[in-house]
Amino acid sequence: MTLATWYALVGALLAALGLHGAVVRRHLLRKVLALNLAASGVFLLLVAPGARGPTTDPVPQAMVITGIVVAVSASALAIWLARRLHAETGRAALPDAEDDRA
Amino acid sequence: MTDLDPSFWLPALTVLSSLLPGVAISALPEERHRTRTALNLAGALAKLVLVGVMLLGIERGASYETRLPLVAGLDLVLHARALPMLFVTLSALLWLLTTVYAIGYLEGSPNRARFFGAFSVCVSATTGVALAGSLLTFVVFYELLTLATYPLVVHRGTPEALRAGRVYLAYTLGGGALVLVASVWLHALAGPFDFVEGGAADLRMIDRGALTAIFALLIAGLGVKTALVPLHGWLPVAMVAPAPVSALLHAVAVVKAGAFGVVRVVYDVFGIGLCADLGVTRPLALLAAATILWGSVRALHQDELKRRLAYSTVSQVSYVVLGVAVAGPMATIGGLVHLVHQGLMKITLFFCAGNLAETLEVHRVSQLRGVGRRMPLTMAAFTVAALGMIGVPPLAGFVSKWFLGLGAIDVGEVWVVPVLVGSSLLNAAYFLPIVRAAWFEEPAGPWPADHAPGRLDAPWLLLGPPLVTAALTLLVGLFAASPLSPLDWCRLIVLREYGP
Amino acid sequence: MPEPVVVAVTAPLALALAASLLGGRRGRWPGLLAAAAVVAAVALLTRDVVAHGPVRHQVGGWGAPLGIDLFVDGLALLFLWLSAGVGAAATVYATAYFHDDEAAGAFWPAWLTLWGGLQAVFVTADLFNAYVGLELLGLAAVALVALGGGRAIGAATRYLLVSMLGSLLYLLGVALLYAAHGTLDLSRLAAAAGEDGLERAALAAMLAGLLFKTAIVPLHAWLPPAHADAPGPASAVLSALVVKATLYLALRLWTALPGLATAGWLVGALGAAAVLWGGLHALRAPRLKLLVAYSTVGQLGYVLLAFPLLPSSAAVAGAAYQALAHGVAKAALFLAASTVLRAAGGDRLDDLRGLGHRLPVTAVAFGLAGASIVGLPPSGGFVAKWLLLTAAVRAGAWWVVLVIALGGLLAAAYVLRVVGRSLAPAHAGAPPLKAPRRLEWTALALALASVALGLVAAWPLALLEGLAP
Question: Residue A39's domain is classified under what CATH number?
Answer without folding.
Answer: 1.10.287.3510
